[in-house]
Amino acid sequence: MQLVCLDLEGVLVPEIWIAFSEATGIPELKITTRDEPDYDKLMKFRLGILKEHDLKLADIQRVIGGLDPLPGALEFTQKLRAKAQLIILSDTFTQFAQPLMAKLGYPTLFCNKLTIDGAGAVVGYEMRQKDGKRKSVEALKSLNFRVFAAGDSFNDLSMIRAADSGCLFRAPDSIRAQCPELAVVEDHAGLAARIDAFLEG
Questions:
Q1: Which member of 9, 15, 91, 152 is catalytic?
Q2: Catalytic residue check, 186
Q3: Which of 73, 124, 182, 201 has a 20 to 30 A CA-CA distance from 60?
Q4: What 3-state DSSP class applies to 131?
Q5: Is 196 one of the catalytic residues?
């Protein structure tokens, strides 16, 4: 049986931190896993900025509430789910993802969790497990699933490489240069074609 694992931000929905950066006018928050491969370093940097500017979870959720899936993403996922099981493997957080999952028709999501204090401030985060995207793909393969994986960031590379097949989606030049062996698609039509070829293989 075949199964498709996709990253969330940058593939199906906008980058949440970039949207929040634009809403708050804080350019440092535009740094994402497309720029920084060390996720722990990136999150500690983000938490420091939130504390410095006294920004709470509710402030981020307000911005997320105004976001919609990327153009064509809902139709893409609907067509895909008619043909194969889909799991979203993301390093985002349950407190961020729920409104976006509703707009995508509630696909299965594996992600992480923020730690919130009594005042509503984000004070930490809990990873489901280290390198959880790769380990999820490996676990699914151990159950005799054939897995296709796609994403756009440094934290997607081990997932894609662990899968039976996969590709990058609109990855930045820095990642393309480091991973010339990985195929790259530029839109959901290209991604659908790759997945279809995998499902038919």
A1: 9
A2: no
A3: 73
A4: coil
A5: no
